[in-house]
Amino acid sequence: MTEATTYTVPVPDDKGGLRLDSFLADAVEPLSRSRIKGLIQGGCVTKAGTVIDDPSAKVRGADVYVVTVPAPTPAVPVAQNIPLDVVFEDDDLIVIDKQVGLGVHPAAGHADGTLVNALLAHCGDSLSGIGGVMRPGIVHRLDMGTSGLMVAAKNDAAHRHLSGQLEDRTLTRRYKALVWGVPKPREGDIEGAIGRNPANRKKMAVVERGGKPALTHYRVLKPVGTRASLVECRLATGRTHQIRVHMAKLGHPLVGDPQYGGGTARRLKDVAEKPRNLLRELKHQALHAFLIGFIHPKSGETIQIESKNLKEINRLTDILAEI
User: Do 98 and 162 belong to one domain?
Assistant: First the structure.
């Protein structure tokens, strides 16, 4: 849990006579004046152990104020009735075929309307909490723009077991992706540690220092038209944006990928109007988790499930086949 942050602020002699909120806002750069005012009124500012709750109080030289910023308290996700495509379920786990646009857990920019909110409504009190308050039951994740199969745990024992399989790489995940061009060789491994892109912290990249080891197996299933191909990817590791980053590093970014060079505009200048317009409507990467395999945490049975929802990949394949 994140701890409270404390600032100790002595008053220089030449600052005597200023309002408390004004002085502290200048002295504590990370905090705005409105935030400082709220902290003062909330009893979070003291002088010599005494709470000072008047923002307009005048400061004096040699006074020492202590500002305590409480640790942020994350909102507990609430159950929301969001439709789920459930392909397998029992008392221990649930496998769903996630739709494009559904975030996995609450985060900045989408505090609700996520898979977690949907699972809380669907599973109720049985949902495992071992993944943390914000990620109950979540064993692994898919990007918001990626569709396909995910398994979630419904109790702590199942969560531990499935997480262990993810860690030792016995939880199998395979993806179908449409990429620009045809990778050569047509089958191989992509290795390269993945970490934050030093030039853009919102993106990931293959980095030489500070990243986590990552390995993706790929094979070309078939060329699609003259400019793309359908590729199967199998994850040996599970890093953020792994397939997207690795395929882009290989020189074959995913069709439609808004972050890693898979955009369509510059690639379609000489393409017929109909397929060009259809592809321009694509706002996410063409990536679908079509297979998942794992050992059931209670029965020990090997379970392998294939997605039957390949409509979007098939639709895009048909469009790309025409160019």
Answer: yes
